[in-house]
Amino acid sequence: MIRVAARGSKLSRAQANLVIDYLKGIGYEVEFLEVKTRGDVFSTQKVAELGKGVFEKEVNQKVLEGEADLAVHSMKDMESDLDNRLEIVATLPRESPLDVIVSPRNVSVYEMERETLGTSSQRRRNFVNFVNPLITVKELRGNLDTRILRLQQGNFDAIIVAEAGIRRLKLDVKYKEIDPYDLTPAPNQGIIAVVARRDNDKIKTIIRNLSSEESYNEALAEREASKALGAGCNSSLGILFNQDGNRLEGIGTIYTPKIKLSVAMSTSKEPKDAGELLARRLREEAKKTGISIQA
Asked: Is 167 tagged catalytic?
């Protein structure tokens, strides 16, 4: 029996089921363990007020305590520093990393006028304030299906969410993709990570074939850049890498309500080195323009 821990939201369950179906497909019995995190319990508070690891710590704790063999996460919710007793043992093939704007009128952020947009992300909030100051940005927390429901109930004119979640839940909503050079995604957006104890060689062997090398390389480069810049999972930094053959194409963007600073690069360096290089270039450009990089 292999025990898989994850949050209980519809999206988290859908992501965990990708791992569970794989394990069942190769002959293992699987038990799902639903975990409530601090982010779930305090669902009305701003994420930034809850500290680090608000959607992952309690799930990983189940693995550390031996109650679960694996933890499944939206990787963008994971902090760049993982407990050294744990290891990311698989990254599934990446879904779309893009942000999208969802609205009944199916408009872009540039087409909106004196309307209301919901998000809990500082990165998305700063982007909207920068490109269209006519929009009123209001706090919107909750699971993806809850946020979509609040939009449909008329609480907001539009919301910005990750396209990966919409695809994984097969939601029938109108939306427009946002170009990553306009709104660079959060590090690791669209990637599912599987975590196990570092010393659990049996589980690591079992899960190995589920992992995508391309997804892992992109994730590693993004996490390294994020770590080098001191960014948490709710920072105003966007970082995206795309592997194209033996090269990694990277974008890093800093957003404030009045300034957007982007750096793009291409390198054949190893993922960690690529991430460090992007972080260094972004920090250099920020210094030239007097922008402070804050987590």
From this structure: no
